[in-house]
Amino acid sequence: MAEPDDAARHRAKMEKRKQMQDTEAAARTREQGLLMVHTGTGKGKSTAAWGLALRMLGYGKRVGVVQFIKGAWTTGERAALESFGPLVTWHTLGEGFTWNTQDKARDIATCRRAWEQALALMQDPDLALLILDELNIALRYDYLPLDEVLDALRNRPPGLHVVVTGRNAKPALVEAADMVTEMTLVKHHTAAGVKAQPGIEF
Amino acid sequence: MAEPDDAARHRAKMEKRKQMQDTEAAARTREQGLLMVHTGTGKGKSTAAWGLALRMLGYGKRVGVVQFIKGAWTTGERAALESFGPLVTWHTLGEGFTWNTQDKARDIATCRRAWEQALALMQDPDLALLILDELNIALRYDYLPLDEVLDALRNRPPGLHVVVTGRNAKPALVEAADMVTEMTLVKHHTAAGVKAQPGIEF
């Protein structure tokens, strides 16, 4: 148990901290659609985007997903999100990783089709959150023109939240974003010989 | 369009890359319950845990959540996960941040009750994923004995996946974990005066 002195010190410290927190919170007054980027080599980029989708669905708001790279294999996240019915619009345009298709012109055409779905979703006034999964990969290999993508993101409806995932986010996208987290790899189980498992990787 | 030479070079490079990827994937043969840690000061630690929950629910598997710090305010993630009915068991024991309660003995008692719920869930043979949200905070302030927590995590059923979230993960927990991602803050919208918004922060 904490000694009385310790308890009093703790309370005094926490009172000060609460004051600081309250002052900081009071300074945050704006509400706006955010451009968010999840990048880095660690696990959690797409996963955190699914978490945001879930959070938004908890308020009964509409969520759109466009997958630029990953192919149309079965995933737990897709099955679970589609259980929310018409609140979720899901487009998987990707045909797998670049080393699967081995055809650059085809990859470029695929990314273009995915981007057109993204543009269409941005016009939907009821959409609250748009997830552009692995768009960073398409940008990194110049499969889509960066300027065109940035312009469209800047000119989206002001209330629309957008998440862009994938390694190697372009510096200009980081610059344009409101929130950027780098998922930094500290340790990954695949390096220890554990295979991709349902519910964890897909 | 890609020139023929460029296309051929691309294909050759991707064939080699695919070979490498296939070799690496073949070396990953084990399946096991993973101990995963989401730490760091960036946004996405709990959010990525909700994404894992969603993924697991997509396979119809059971998920348990214990919240050690955050209080019982309404959140989108809770509303959305509870729409999966009996597949989700959710315990919010926390009473808010330490600067809200301002009472260390009470915080310690709260963490103990939360930990007991976690221990009970670990005994459930049908549970696939257990999320210990903000357990890192409880450990950081020594509100729970680290050794006791590590022992229980090591002795959990071998197929059970566990995610521990929160800043300042203890080095011994990082050591014990199979997968650790540090959510590194690159840029956060609260610094620009944007307030916490439903669907994004809660």
UniProtKB/TrEMBL annotation, chains A, B:
InterPro entries: CblAdoTrfase_CobA, Co_AT_N_dom, P-loop_NTPase. Pfam families: Co_AT_N, CobA_CobO_BtuR. Its main location: cytoplasm. Residues 1-26 are annotated as: Disordered. Residues 17-26 have a biased composition (Basic and acidic residues). Belongs to the Cob(I)alamin adenosyltransferase family. This is Corrinoid adenosyltransferase. It comes from Rhodopila globiformis (Rhodopseudomonas globiformis).
